[in-house]
Write a sequence for this structure.
């Protein structure tokens, strides 16, 4: 299993990560290595053993229904690339339908 | 596009409708599902957000115990079995209403499974199967800017407020409901009505459809009558009033029948409901449905409600609307129709409280569903919002039973109470409204009336009892309505015997 440089560029775009050509050259092979390493797990995984989703064995970790202070709108919006009417401004969501 | 049009009645002569509903309910917890931000409706944009519900790096969600409890409550009320172990899942999608790019939901391990809700339409009971009840988080609210319609299509950009993002949201999914024929739209509406009443009685949500705390998606399909097979279904979104639920099923039956009559095929798609026209238009096609790449949420541990917890919740369940219905119908000897009209008129609680305060069920109904319903209607409020208490109404009813008031005077007392003049007794006192039951006072008025009508008096004496009405009427007028007509008649007949 391997992932191409083009696929990494596509993923970066979907994730809104601006990667330069140099960064892509550097990161694409690394991501490939990570995927190969994870793929080894599949060789070990035995038939009939359910996939593990949680390693701790804990269940029922809850919080009480008590309010805690939230951010101010200014703080909340401070990292947004664009703001209008105290809301996060996002690019057009749907492309024009034909 | 179809060219033929088919009336509803025609459609039902050839096709069998099947419907199903997915209902989303915002839970009434104080704080969000996975963080301690407030859930209050109508706050300033982005004033109820924190790193968790904004999906900022490094933040971790923790489950709200009350939200889990409320969901189990709903499951039990809907006769579901409660999972002994289940997990949340990530539903991945690229859409800015969730800043994390995924929504925490439940996938193949819902908290509650396989139940039912009985609903009643025209005195007939239909059992609606419940497929599942699961818990997820609500999304943010988007404003679409540019374009003519304010809709997402044609918008140049969008503005997002994340106050709603992360509010616990329960999704209740029915099984497909076949076999209701032409009643399908009404049964769909009755289901949502009953579900709303159940949720309200549980106290888990304010179930305000107009504020979006209860929202419905309606699935509809048609198959040729008697074919036994089920047709392709469409999913109608944005159906946000009880009336719209009924209209959406109705209009989809007509539309799909026209498509099928032409030899066309119904496309499995999402459709949008338009309040103004009552019709649906095509949205995105389900055939190109996205892959949400569900996987177990690694940041949350599983939920494993033990039997003791579930039993404790079961014990805490209040009387459910169906049980209350059965109890009141039996105890008050009501017809289905009488019960429905009281429930639909929002008068059940006040009538029951009036009975508890000592009135007979008949009297309590008579005042609330008659005189008071009229007043409420005139002033455009719910009958329960009138400035009069069930105890007041019970007192008026008691005064009538005791003969202190007749119906006409009782209405005046209600006027006084509604006008803020005090309790029924205070109004009787202030306005001097008590029936004149003192026989000596009445006899004086009767003698006067007999003297004034000698010919009538003669007729009565000679046995024409019916003629006494003239004298009784004169007495009632003379006492300005405060005389009890039945008692006056007795006294008149005695006097003239």
């Amino acid at each position: 299993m391997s992932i191409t440089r083009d696929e990494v560029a596509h993923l970066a775009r979907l994730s809104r990560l601006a990667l330069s050509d140099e960064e892509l050259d550097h990161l694409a092979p690394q991501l490939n290595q990570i995927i190969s390493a994870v793929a080894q797990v599949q060789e070990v995984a035995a038939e009939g053993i359910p996939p593990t989703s949680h390693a701790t064995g804990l269940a029922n970790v809850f919080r009480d229904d008590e309010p805690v202070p939230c951010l101010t709108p200014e703080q909340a919006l401070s990292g947004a690339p664009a703001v209008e009417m105290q809301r996060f401004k996002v690019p057009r969501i749907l492309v024009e339908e034909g | 596009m179809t060219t033929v049009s088919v009336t509803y009645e025609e459609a039902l002569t050839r096709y069998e409708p099947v419907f199903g509903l997915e209902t989303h309910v915002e839970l009434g917890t104080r704080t969000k599902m996975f963080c301690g931000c407030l859930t209050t409706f109508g706050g300033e944009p982005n004033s109820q957000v924190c790193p968790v519900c904004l999906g900022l790096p490094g933040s971790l969600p923790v489950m709200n115990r009350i939200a889990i409890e409320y969901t189990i409550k709903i499951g039990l009320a809907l006769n579901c079995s409660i999972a002994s172990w289940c997990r949340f899942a990530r539903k991945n999608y690229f859409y800015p209403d969730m800043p994390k790019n995924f929504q925490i939901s439940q996938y193949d391990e819902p908290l509650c499974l396989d139940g039912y809700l009985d609903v009643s339409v025209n005195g007939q009971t239909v059992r609606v199967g419940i497929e599942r009840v699961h818990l997820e988080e609500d999304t943010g609210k988007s404003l679409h800017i540019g374009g003519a319609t304010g809709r997402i299509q044609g918008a140049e950009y969008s503005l997002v407020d994340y106050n709603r993002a992360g509010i616990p949201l329960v999704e209740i999914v029915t099984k497909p409901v076949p076999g209701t024929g032409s009643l399908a739209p009404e049964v769909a509406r009755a289901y949502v009505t009953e579900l709303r009443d159940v949720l309200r009685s549980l106290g888990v949500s304010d179930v305000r459809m107009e504020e979006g705390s209860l929202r419905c998606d309606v699935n509809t399909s048609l198959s040729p009558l008697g074919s036994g097979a089920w047709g392709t279904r469409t999913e109608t979104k944005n159906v946000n009033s009880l009336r719209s639920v009924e209209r959406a099923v109705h209009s989809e039956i007509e539309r799909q029948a026209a498509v099928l009559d032409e030899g066309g095929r119904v496309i499995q798609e999402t459709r949008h409901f338009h309040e103004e026209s009552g019709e649906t238009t095509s949205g995105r096609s389900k055939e190109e449905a996205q892959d949400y790449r569900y996987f177990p949420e690694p940041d949350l541990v599983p939920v494993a409600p033990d039997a003791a917890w579930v039993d404790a919740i079961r014990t805490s369940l209040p009387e459910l609307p169906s049980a209350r219905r059965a109890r009141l119908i039996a105890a008050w000897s009501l017809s289905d129709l009488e019960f429905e009209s009281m429930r639909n008129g929002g008068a059940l609680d006040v009538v029951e409280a009036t009975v508890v305060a000592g009135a007979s069920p008949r009297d309590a109904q008579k005042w609330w569903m008659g005189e008071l319903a009229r007043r409420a209607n005139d002033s455009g409020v719910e009958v329960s919002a009138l400035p009069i208490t069930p105890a007041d109404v019970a007192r008026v009813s008691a005064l009538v039973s005791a003969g202190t008031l007749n119906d006409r005077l009782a209405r005046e007392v209600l006027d006084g109470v509604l006008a803020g003049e005090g309790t029924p007794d205070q109004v009787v006192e202030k306005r001097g409204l008590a029936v004149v039951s003192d026989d000596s006072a009445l006899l004086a008025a009767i003698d006067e009336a007999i003297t004034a009508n000698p010919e009538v008096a003669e007729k009565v004496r000679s046995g024409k009892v019916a003629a006494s009405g003239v004298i009784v009427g004169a007495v009632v007028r003379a006492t300005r309505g405060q005389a009890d007509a039945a008692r006056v008649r007795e006294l008149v007949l005695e006097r003239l015997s």
About this structure: The first strand of chain B starts at residue 15 and ends at 26. Residues 319-431 of chain B form one domain.
